[in-house]
Design goal:
The structure holds two protein chains of two kinds. Helices cover 48% and strands 2% of the residues of chain A. Chain A contains seven helices and two strands; from the N terminus they run ααββααααα. Chain A has a two-stranded antiparallel sheet with strand order 1-2. In chain A, α2 packs antiparallel against α3. Chain B contains eight helices and two strands, in the order ααααββαααα. Chain B has a two-stranded antiparallel ribbon. In chain B, a hairpin with a 2-residue loop joins β1 and β2. The chains are: A mainly alpha, B mainly alpha. At the A-B interface, α1, α2, α3, α4 and α5 of A face α3, β1, β2, α5 and α6 of B.
Chain lengths: 203, 261
């Protein structure tokens, strides 16, 4: 096409992609409703539900992801104007998500269908004692679930570590772990949370 | 293809059946064709484009090509995260719970951030509309609102990071979480891995937001100088596409990071 035919399409080109205000606000309202929905669904613990002895825990992630996909479709179609874009733009956008889909499905097809979980028996070499096991100093932390922490803007201290106090921290370097375990057998009731003695540090 | 002399004869007789569609289109010029300014009088149409619409199309396509690479960039990270989510579910669940419990006014910071970012997406969409309609003051105001919302997002994120640091949840040498934060059966190394994923993904996202804020500053300066007109609104639309994409990434990061159940 040459420049003589430019006027009409120039005028059109400026205007074609503008949505009405009402559409934008409707899409925004839908997005916020979906956000509330996804947060609300996260409070439902589907793992406690049973359907003919099947665990329904997978419903949580499914709901969250379905809502996320709907939200992203709204954003892409209306806010990003893909709805009014040319077919070539659709192909470009579609190619991105097509390849993303290939990446995700082919990889997860492997990892999600293995019979045993990977790395389940890899020992924890961090040197920090595992809280699942009884602590060497006899403290019962195994089933302790901390209360809900608060941010600074709401009531309560904002840092759990700060509230508990410095002396109750239980981290020791890796090289000290065997010595500390030997010094404090699990049966002996030791005073709470002390740094390892200097003798252990030299070994 | 028929030769020119034959075509000219057929057109003169009013029979254009021998013409190709392109030739036929060229024949049917609008009546106002002589009113179109020559190319060098249309400053917003670069010389390699015939029309403004064509130029807009090329701009949009280029941006979508870039966004496609970004989709795969974030997609790779999300894929790795998802694979490890299946492997170390206990640790992921625990870390996600700790994340979700940092809250303002009873709503977790992640949900606040999602709301803030969705709102900024709306203001950007409205800013693009204002630019398309050539409303300069409205455009500047909406861009400023967007920047304020983006800054609010980063502020909330920074407060989260600060809290995580004080809790000893930053991977590497500062990593020393209180064991009482841990649920039964949670191992330290996979737990640290969760926080590595969390910090890398959110930091890369925050970096994109910072770049977006810089681009909006550029747009505001351009609009202030009157460089963005009804015809030349494409920078707003392109940067708007970028911002919507950043919003899109967060739409997926929020349930993945904060809502592991």
């Amino acid at each position: 096409m040459n420049e003589h035919a430019a006027t009409e399409s120039d005028r059109e080109g400026v205007q074609t992609k503008a949505e009405s205000l009402r559409t934008y606000f409707a899409v925004y309202a839908a997005l916020m409703v979906l956000l509330v929905l996804t947060v609300a669904a996260s409070f439902v613990d589907f793992a406690k539900w049973r359907l003919a002895h099947h665990n329904l825990g997978w419903l949580n992630i499914s709901f969250a992801m379905i809502i996320a996909v709907i939200k992203s479709l709204l954003v892409v179609l209306f806010f990003m104007h893909l709805r009014h874009s040319s077919r070539l733009t659709w192909i470009f956008a579609g190619a991105a998500f097509l390849w993303l889909g290939i990446l995700l499905t082919l990889t997860l097809n492997d990892y999600l269908t293995r019979r045993r979980p990977l790395y389940e028996d890899v020992p924890d070499k961090s040197g920090i004692r595992q809280p699942a096991q009884p602590e060497a100093n006899g403290r019962a932390q195994v089933s302790f679930v901390p209360p809900r922490r608060r941010s600074r803007l709401s009531s309560g201290g904002h840092s759990c570590a700060a509230r508990l106090g410095r002396e109750q921290r239980l981290t020791i370097p890796a090289r000290h772990a065997p010595a500390a375990a030997a010094r404090c057998p699990p049966t002996a009731p030791a005073p709470a949370a002390r740094p390892p003695p200097p003798a252990a540090r030299s070994t | 293809m028929p030769d020119d002399a034959a075509v000219a004869g057929e057109v003169a007789r009013g029979d254009d059946s021998a013409l190709t569609p392109q030739q036929r289109r060229a024949q049917s010029r609008p009546a106002s064709a002589h009113l179109v300014a020559p190319r060098h009088h249309r400053p917003h149409v670069k010389h390699q484009f015939d029309t403004l619409a064509q130029q807009h199309e090329a701009d949009t396509l280029g941006m979508w090509a870039f966004l496609a690479t970004e989709v795969l960039f974030f997609g790779g990270m999300i894929l790795c995260y998802t694979v490890y989510r299946g492997v170390y579910f206990k640790e992921w669940h625990n870390g996600s719970r700790i994340l979700d419990e940092f809250e303002f006014l009873g709503i977790s910071a992640g949900a606040w951030n999602t709301a803030v970012l969705l709102t900024s997406s709306l203001t950007v969409a409205l800013a693009v509309r204002a630019a398309q309609l050539g409303r300069r003051e409205q455009l500047i105001g909406l861009l400023l609102a967007t920047m304020a919302l983006g800054a609010a997002f980063l502020l909330i994120k920074a407060m989260e990071y600060r809290n995580d640091y004080h809790e000893g949840l930053v991977p590497g040498w500062p990593f020393h979480p209180d064991p009482r934060l841990l649920e039964p059966g949670v191992r330290m190394r996979p737990f640290e891995l969760f926080w590595s994923f969390y910090f890398v993904m959110t930091a890369v996202h925050a970096l994109h937001m910072l770049i977006g804020l810089g681009l909006f500053t550029y747009l505001i300066v351009q609009a202030w100088r009157g460089k963005l007109t009804r015809e030349h609104h494409m920078p707003v639309e392109i940067i708007g596409l970028y911002w919507h994409f950043v919003d899109l990434v967060w739409i997926f990061l929020f349930p993945l990071l904060y809502l592991v159940r």
